[in-house]
Amino acid sequence: MSAPPTERHASFLEAAKSIFWAFFGVRRRHHGEQDALKLTPLQIVAAGILGGAVFVLVLVLVVRVIVTSHGAAN
Predict the structure, then answer these.
(1) Per-residue b/e over 4-41, b at no fewer than 16 CB within 10 Å?
(2) Residues 37-67: pLDDT tens digits?
(3) pTM for the full model?
(4) Helix-strand-coil percent breakdown of the chain, rounded to 5?
(5) Which of 5, 36, 42, 56 is the most exposed place for a label (fewest CB within 10 A)?
(6) What's the CA gap between 5 and 15, in Å, rounded?
(7) Distances (CA, A) of 8 to 2, 28, 49, 51
(8) Using CA atoms, how far apart are residues 53 and 23, in angstroms rounded to an integer?
(9) With 60 as the cut, is the pLDDT of residue 1 above it?
(10) Res. 6: pLDDT tops 80
């Protein structure tokens, strides 16, 4: 008899990678099902908030660079 498979939780990097691809809407069904088995709700929420914050900060940085390059003052 073989021992039942042990549950393995995903690392934060795996959760971040999953959320990154979810932002783009590109995810294979097989990978999504694997993520659903390995990721905890806390990991998903934390990675989503962090990913959203990074996305907003990048947008703000891009807008600031564009505005300053066109000579607009604060």
Answers:
(1) eeeeeebeeebbbebbeebeeeeeeeeeeeebeebbee
(2) 888 888 888 888 998 999 999 999 999 999 9
(3) 0.66
(4) 70, 0, 30
(5) 5
(6) 21
(7) 17, 20, 23, 23
(8) 12
(9) no
(10) no
Residue for token digits 């549950």?
A: 7
- How far CA 9 is from CA of 14, 31, 45, in Å, comes to 10, 14, 15
Query: Cα 69 to chain center, whole Å?
Result: 30
Are 48 and 17 a contacting pair, CB within 8 Å?
no
Using alpha carbons, select from 5, 29, 19, 74 the residue that is nearest to residue 52: 19
Residue found by looking up tokens 């039942």 in the block: 4
